[in-house]
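Troubleshooting: if your tokenizer reports a length mismatch, compare your output against this known-good record of 396 residues.
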Amino acid sequence: MRFDPWNPDFVASPYAVYDELRREAPVSFFEPTGQWLIARHADVNALLRDRRLGRSYLHLATHEEFGREPEPDFQEPFWRVIRAGMLDVEPPVHTRLRRLVSKAFTPRMVESMRPRVRAIVEGLVDDFVEKGGGDLIAEVAEPLPVTVIAEMLGVPDADRHLLRPWSADICGMYELNPSQEAQHTAVRAASEFSDYLKGLARARRAAPGEDLISALAQIEELTEDELVGTCVLLLNAGHEATVNVTGNGWWSLFRNPSELVRLREDLSLLPTAVEELMRYDTPLQMFERWVLEDIEVGGVAIPKGVEIALLFGSANRDPEVFDRPDALDVGRADNPHISFGAGIHFCLGAPLARIELVESFGALLTRAPDIALVEEPEWNPGYIIRGLRSLDVSCG
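Known-good structure output:
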């Protein structure tokens, strides 16, 4: 099998292909998307920190000046939202936005949320166990981070059912060569979510509460588009990865029963286990960057104006960095995985994600000690944001 992100078999198990890429073509051009694939940990890690690359080039040049085709006009509502968030901008705009939003993610602020996260997940797990199990993703993995981020933002209970569908539809645009249907769906979702958040922000500006939208709405130097872009990013980044780490992680534990037993018998391993599950079956398989100046990677010249694809899933299985990289080791102490990225775009919500994951796995391990897989799951078709359709389990 070759690198083929549209092939369900590859999406289900890309790691043998990654092994081959690291050995034989660690820097290679992928014609179908016009991207350079970067497979080794050292290169991926270095390029994430290299300021000759960027998530965007529009701070330096227009599409035409950079040698790229402009996006079609119908996509404008989508990109207006996305490019107003900090992930898709570069300094100095990125620096300003991250400074403003990071106040909500200080270590003290995040740790203060642990009791509330624990209460939410314990309620979800107790309901799940009481009914004897079901789809672990739909009934535990998804509601937890959506509820946490919705409470942070101040989204009313009655509206929270809208968030997950909007997020999933928006993220469809991030897949490689998305279909026309996926593009139009993403545009619609971005427009609807934007309109909703603008209305909420205007109401909170007039009558602020204790939530993050209220706080952001009072910041004069934050434009309305930047507020919307920030909130959309917090929702998408704040739960997509957490959902998929939970689903992929339990599937990994079911396939490695000795490690599941080891973890259940020693819950002090939960923090290292969460890091290992993120490494072992990475939820974000690829992260893309634009080359802003000519560079050389592994002896290969890569010119300005092209896009590189950093293969996180491959980097996290690199034997040059990880001992027994294809083995799941819930006690792995030396684990410099890059699932949260690196450099200025390192995931701002990583500490909160870690708390959610430790509390989620801990609650299921203690409250559902006999949790068992009902049937082998299927993977969603997406490759970049890679996760299971469902994970049917029994409890009792």
